[in-house]
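$ ./design --mode recover --in tokens.txt
reading tokens...
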């Protein structure tokens, strides 16, 4: 998109509207952020300007007021001569939160279904006056604004109108390991796209804190449920929660993972180039910088492969009740088979027509035996970040097997790239926000999208045996 594209976003001073403005500005569009309250709108624009986004300006707009709409149209005609994009985002909910604590403790909007109408007494109210305001804003306001700006949109070579709607009560997503880093960003971006997100984390307090952060930002369509993917009871509890409250699941993002390493000397790790120095040729040079104890190797496989597998198996029945089910396994370029030095093993893991789940299990147990006996080099395993590489290679193979088994589910791998997170000791080339875009895209594929493929930073890439960048 070119810089001279002019875009109007209604209700842009907070929440989703503010984030739409920010992301459009980051993509080089000139944004006119509008809000009914002038001081709040100016404050929002100042916040974006201070962050370096000088291509955002403010104009007051009350979409319920015809004069206010006309003033905006005159402003655009006078200064820009045309309009390229209109995002009708301003909206009202039509409800009052009578008991905010009970509303949140009960699961937020996940509990707001018609079967629970009596149970919601004293928690939320929907007075007639707010119902009227809701229709005037959400429908008639968007309609009036559109009608007033269509002539200016007609002067653009590529006009767009986006009406922000809701998949309320429709699409439910689980993200494992959602309390920080890439997982948190996946939750945020999916919620911004209107999906109802169940953010899960092993640590309850951190998970609740993450959800509160998203709720405060205006994303009320995110709730928390505790999940330890290494614990079968915890997985079963999550499945029961989904079945009880939502009856189905639409998307599962298996993101939770462990790195299997200890940063012994964090400064040397960062000064040496982070993971760019972590190659098998440097294995001796990494002594005293990172360590990979056997116990962490075991935990790495249990989490990254078996945890994802158990979670998938437990939730497949609920995904089967969705009209458009998706599973996204967050992987890594470290899962590529070129990191293996055993050619026969590489070919075996690549030969998806003959590979079985049982054989993957045997391979993983073989790896752990060799790891414990210090036979990684002898038998051709990766020598650096070994458990992580083996776990992600296994996850890639499992993804392809499951895509063949469950042809009603779009089931893919997605790698975010080398991102700056706690797992990488804050080293990398991409932010968590940038890295999350690939798994989010895979989660929102159209119904005729691919299955059993590998997405490498937004593009389909082959499951290859030769090197590629991390």
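writing sequence...
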């Amino acid at each position: 998109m070119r810089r001279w594209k002019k875009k109007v976003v209604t209700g842009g001073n907070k929440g989703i509207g503010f984030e739409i403005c920010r992301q459009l500005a980051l993509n080089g569009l000139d944004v006119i952020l509008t809000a009914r309250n002038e001081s709040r709108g100016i404050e929002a624009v100042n916040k974006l300007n201070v962050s370096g986004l000088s291509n955002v300006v403010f104009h007051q707009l009350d979409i319920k007021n015809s004069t206010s709409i006309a003033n905006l149209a005159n402003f655009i005609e006078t200064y820009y001569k045309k309009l390229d994009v209109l995002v009708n985002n301003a909206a009202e909910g039509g409800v009052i939160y009578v008991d905010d604590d009970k509303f949140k403790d009960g699961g937020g909007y996940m509990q707001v279904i018609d079967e629970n109408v009596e149970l919601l007494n004293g928690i939320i109210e929907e007075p007639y006056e707010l119902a009227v305001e809701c229709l005037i804003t959400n429908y008639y306001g968007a309609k009036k604004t559109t009608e007033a700006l269509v002539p200016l949109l007609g002067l653009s070579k590529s006009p767009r109108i986006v009406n922000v709607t809701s998949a309320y009560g429709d699409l439910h997503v689980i993200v494992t390991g959602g309390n920080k880093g890439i997982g948190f960003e996946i939750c945020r971006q999916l919620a911004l796209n209107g999906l109802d997100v169940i953010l899960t984390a092993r640590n309850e307090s951190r998970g609740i804190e993450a959800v509160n952060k998203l709720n405060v930002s205006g994303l009320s369509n995110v709730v928390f449920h505790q999940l330890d993917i290494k614990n079968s009871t915890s997985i079963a509890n999550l499945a029961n929660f989904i079945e009880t409250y939502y009856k189905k699941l639409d998307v599962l993002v298996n993101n939770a993972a462990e790195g299997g390493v200890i940063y012994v000397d964090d400064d040397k790790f960062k000064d040496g180039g982070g993971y760019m120095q972590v190659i098998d040729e440097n294995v001796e040079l990494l002594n005293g910088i990172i360590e990979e104890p056997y116990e962490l190797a075991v935990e790495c496989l249990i989490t990254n492969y078996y945890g994802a597998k158990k979670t998938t198996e437990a939730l497949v029945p609920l995904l089967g009740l969705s009209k458009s089910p998706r599973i996204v396994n967050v992987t890594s370029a470290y899962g590529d088979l070129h990191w293996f030095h055993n050619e026969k093993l590489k070919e075996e893991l690549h030969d998806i027509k003959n590979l079985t789940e049982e054989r993957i299990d045997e391979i993983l147990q073989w790896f752990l035996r060799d790891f414990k006996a210090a036979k990684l080099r002898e038998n051709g395993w990766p020598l650096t970040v070994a458990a992580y590489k083996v776990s992600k290679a296994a996850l890639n193979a499992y993804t392809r097997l499951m895509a063949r088994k469950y042809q009603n589910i779009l089931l893919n791998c997605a790698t975010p790239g080398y991102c700056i997170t706690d797992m990488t000791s804050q080293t990398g080339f991409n932010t968590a926000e940038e890295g999350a875009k690939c798994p989010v895209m895979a989660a929102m594929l159209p119904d005729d999208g691919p299955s059993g493929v590998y997405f490498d930073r937004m593009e389909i890439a082959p499951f290859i045996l030769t090197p590629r960048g991390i």
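exit 0
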